[in-house]
Amino acid sequence: MNTLRKSVASGILISLGAYGILVIENHYISALLFTLGLLTICKLKLNLFTGKCGFVFEDHAWKDLGITLVGNLIAGYLLGLAYSFVSADLVEIASARVSTWNLDVSFLVRSMLCGVLMYVAVKLYREGTILGIIIGIPMFILCGFQHCIANVVYMGVARTFHPALLISILGNMAGSLLIWFFTKDIPSRNNE
Predict the structure, then answer these.
(1) How far is the C-alpha of 192 from the C-alpha of 189, rounded, in Å?
(2) What gap in Å lies between CA 113 and CA 124, rounded to an integer?
(3) Dist. CA 147–CA 110, nearest whole Å
(4) CA distances from residue 51 to 59, 153, 170, 172 in whole angstroms, order as listed
(5) How far is residue 185 from each of residues 52, 64, 180, 182, measured CA to CA in Å?
(6) Residue 28: what are its φ and ψ, rounded to 5°?
């Protein structure tokens, strides 16, 4: 139950960042403000799928990763749905965003690149610096990379479901595991 509770909390925090992306017109500011979600998640040791999936072979927590994903998705979608009642303009903005998603290789690659940056951000946090979060999170947002939990929030605001969500989940995990695989045996400066 603790895993689910921490997963729902993370979904709430990411939903706030996604809300900011939709309503704050200055993309640089909204991208920077989004970092508050991951900083809080890391500091409070909450469960975010995109922050944990790259470490699953180290942690061997497959069941917890599944619970985390479900908790993140449910909380994200429900909060997005709640945000949809704030204004019709917000629904229109989210709908326009979701309508641009294509089930193609580009979407998968942008999801994988988000996974790489999420892994790097969390790995660097675990190594004692927030620079990965402060730089990596705005980078994935400004580059248009696809974050599955933020995407489910946009779907909730748009009051729809889109099959691209599955691609972003798989891409986020694949990107995280890819960078983990190529860096796993490299000692960190803390281990020297």
Answers:
(1) 5
(2) 17
(3) 9
(4) 12, 17, 14, 10
(5) 18, 24, 9, 8
(6) -70, -40
The C-alpha atoms of residue 84 and residue 156 are separated, in whole angstroms, by 7
Q: Which amino acid is at 17?
A: G
Q: How far apart are CA 172 and CA 160, in angstroms?
A: 21
For the entire predicted model, the pTM comes to 0.94
Note whether 155 and 41 are within 8 A (CB). Answer: no
Round to whole Å and give the CA distance between 122 and 142.
Answer: 19
Question: Could you report the per-residue pLDDT of 88-126, keeping only the tens digit for each?
Answer: 999 999 999 999 999 999 999 999 999 999 999 999 999
Binning pLDDT at 50, 70 and 90, where does residue 188 land? confident
